[in-house]
C-alpha cells in the first residue's frame, strides 16, 4: 500500500512538473534575446531533489553561445555546471547567484557536458529547462 | 543535498574580471548525485552551419537543396519527420542567402509536414503571416524560424513524440553535413573541411539520441546507418588541450580557451561525403518508412 501511494505521489509530481514545463520554457526563452538565436531545441528534464540532468553539446570555435537554465517561474532556481569532456570544470552558476543565463565564447571547438539540478532552496521537484542560443 | 560534496563555494557576484583556477578534473562519481536515466543531447542548429557556409561562400547554390519541394511525397510519420529536418535546413540556407521567395516556398512545405506530425497549424499560420510582412527583413525572419523550431520541438516532446523530434534533428543534421561536405570538396576551403571533422562528436550525440528512442527497434535502420558513418569519422584525427578558462562576471561571459584540432584527409573527406550522400538519398527518396 505504501509503495502504491508513493508511486501515485511520484506520478502526481511528474504531471505537475510537466504542466510547469511550458511556463518555465516561456520564461527561459526571454533570456535568449538580442543577437542570440535559439538552436531550435528544447531540453527539459523532470528532476527530484538530488537528481542531476546531463546535457551533451558541441560548441564551435569562434562562436559565442548563451546557456539559459530555468526551473519554476522565477530565475535562479536551477544550478548548472559546464565541464569539458575530461571533466575539467569550466563554469558553475552557483558562484554567480545561480545566474539564469551565461555566455560562453569559444576559441576552439569543444565538446561539453552540462549538469543541471534544482536549487534545494527553490523546491524538491520541478521541470528543468535548458535553452541554448548562438550569437549571430 | 549532495551539492556540497562537489566542493562548491558560496556565492560570489563581484564585478571584476577574474580567472578561475579549476584545473583539477571533477570525478562525477564523487558528487553524491543521482543521474537522471536519460542524457540530453544537443545537435548544432542547421542555421548555425548555414551562417558558416554563407561566410565562406556567398554564392547561393540552389543545387545543394532537395529539388523536390513536395510534402505530399511523404506519407508516414518517420519520413515526414526526417524530411521536415531536411527542408528546415534548406529553409535556413535559403534565408541566410537572402532567397526569401524560395524560403517562403520551403516554409510552406515545412508547414504541411509539421502539421501532419501534429504541430499546431496556428504556429505556422502566424509565422507565415509575419514572414509575408517581413520578406526583406532577414534578421526578423531568422528569429521567427528559430523560434518556430524551438516551439515545435517543445510541442513534440510534451506530447511524447520524442522519436519524431529526434528524426527531425537527424534529417537536419544530415542535410547540413551534406551542404558542408559538398562545399568543402568543391571549394577546398579549410574551415569547411574542419567543420566536417568537428561533426565527430555531433554524430556521437545523434547516435545517442536515436538509440534512446529505439526501444521498439523502429529506428534501428537509422542508428545502423549512422554507426557505419561513425566508422569513417573514427579516422578523423582529433586532439584537445585543456586551458584554464577566463570568466568575466561583469559581462556574464566565460571565455573558453581550450584548444582542439581536427585533421581530415582527402580520402576520409570523400568517404564521409559518399556516405552522407547515400544517407541523404535514403531520407529524401524513401517515402514509406
Quickly describe the structure.
Chain A has 136 residues and is of the alpha+beta class. Chain A contains one helix and nine strands; from the N terminus they run H-E-E-E-E-E-E-E-E-E.
From the structure above, extract its key features.
heterodimer; A: 136 residues; Jelly Rolls; five-stranded antiparallel β-sheet; four-stranded antiparallel β-sheet; globular; B: 289 residues; mainly alpha; three-stranded antiparallel β-sheet; two-stranded antiparallel sheet; 7 strands; disordered N terminus
Report on the structure:
By secondary structure, chain A is an alpha+beta fold. Chain A is 21% helix and 46% strand. Chain A has one helix at residues 2-29; strands at residues 36-38, 43-48, 51-59, 64-71, 78-84, 89-92, 101-106, 110-118, 125-135. The termini of chain A are far apart. The mean pLDDT of chain A is 88. Chain B has one domain (51-285). The model of chain B is unreliable at 1-24 and 27-35 (pLDDT under 50). Chains A and B meet through helix 1, strand 2, strand 3, strand 5 and strand 6 of A and strand 2, strand 3, helix 1, helix 5 and helix 8 of B. Strand 3 of chain A pairs parallel with strand 2 (34-35) of chain B, so a sheet runs across the interface.
Low-confidence stretches of chain B: 1-24, 27-35
According to DSSP, the number of beta strands of chain B is 7
Integer tally of domains of chain B? 1
Question: Largest interface by residue count?
Answer: A-B, 69 and 72 residues
Amino acid at each position: 500500500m505504501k509503495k502504491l501511494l508513493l508511486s501515485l505521489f511520484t506520478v502526481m509530481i511528474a504531471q505537475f512538473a510537466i504542466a510547469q514545463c511550458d511556463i518555465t520554457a516561456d520564461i527561459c526563452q526571454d533570456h535568449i534575446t538580442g543577437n542570440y538565436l535559439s538552436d531550435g531545441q528544447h531540453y527539459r528534464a523532470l528532476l527530484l531533489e538530488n537528481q542531476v540532468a546531463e546535457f551533451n553539446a558541441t560548441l564551435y570555435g569562434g562562436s559565442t553561445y548563451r546557456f539559459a537554465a530555468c526551473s519554476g517561474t522565477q530565475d535562479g532556481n536551477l544550478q548548472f555546471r559546464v565541464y569539458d569532456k575530461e571533466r575539467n570544470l569550466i563554469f558553475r552558476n552557483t558562484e554567480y547567484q545561480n545566474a539564469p543565463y551565461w555566455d560562453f565564447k569559444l576559441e576552439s571547438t569543444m565538446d561539453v557536458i552540462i549538469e543541471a539540478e534544482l536549487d534545494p532552496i527553490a523546491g524538491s521537484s520541478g521541470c528543468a529547462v535548458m535553452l541554448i542560443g548562438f550569437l549571430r | 543535498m549532495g551539492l556540497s560534496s562537489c566542493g562548491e563555494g558560496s556565492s560570489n557576484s563581484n564585478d571584476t574580471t577574474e580567472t578561475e583556477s579549476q584545473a583539477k578534473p571533477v570525478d562525477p562519481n564523487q558528487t553524491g548525485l543521482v543521474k537522471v536515466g536519460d542524457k540530453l543531447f544537443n545537435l548544432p542548429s542547421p542555421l548555425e552551419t548555414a551562417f558558416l557556409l554563407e561566410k565562406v561562400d556567398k554564392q547561393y547554390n540552389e543545387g545543394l537543396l532537395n529539388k523536390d519541394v513536395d510534402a505530399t511525397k511523404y506519407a508516414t510519420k518517420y519520413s515526414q519527420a526526417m524530411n521536415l529536418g531536411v527542408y528546415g535546413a534548406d529553409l535556413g540556407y535559403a534565408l541566410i542567402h537572402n532567397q526569401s521567395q524560395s524560403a517562403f516556398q520551403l516554409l510552406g512545405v515545412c508547414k504541411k509536414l509539421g502539421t501532419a506530425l501534429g504541430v499546431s497549424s496556428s504556429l505556422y499560420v502566424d509565422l507565415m503571416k509575419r514572414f509575408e510582412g517581413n520578406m526583406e527583413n532577414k534578421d526578423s525572419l531568422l528569429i521567427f524560424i528559430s523560434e518556430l523550431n524551438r516551439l515545435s520541438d517543445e510541442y513534440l516532446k510534451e506530447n511524447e513524440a520524442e522519436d519524431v523530434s529526434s528524426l527531425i534533428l537527424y534529417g537536419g543534421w544530415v542535410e547540413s553535413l551534406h551542404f558542408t561536405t559538398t562545399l568543402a570538396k568543391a571549394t577546398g576551403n579549410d574551415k569547411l573541411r574542419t567543420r566536417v571533422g568537428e561533426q565527430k562528436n555531433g554524430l556521437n550525440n545523434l547516435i545517442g539520441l536515436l538509440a534512446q528512442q529505439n526501444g521498439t527497434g523502429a529506428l534501428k535502420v537509422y542508428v545502423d546507418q549512422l554507426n557505419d558513418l561513425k566508422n569513417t569519422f573514427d579516422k578523423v584525427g582529433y586532439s584537445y588541450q585543456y586551458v584554464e578558462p577566463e570568466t568575466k562576471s561583469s559581462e556574464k561571459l566565460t571565455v573558453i580557451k581550450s584548444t582542439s584540432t581536427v585533421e581530415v584527409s582527402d580520402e576520409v573527406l570523400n568517404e564521409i561525403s559518399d556516405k552522407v550522400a547515400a544517407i541523404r538519398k535514403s531520407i529524401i527518396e524513401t517515402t514509406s518508412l
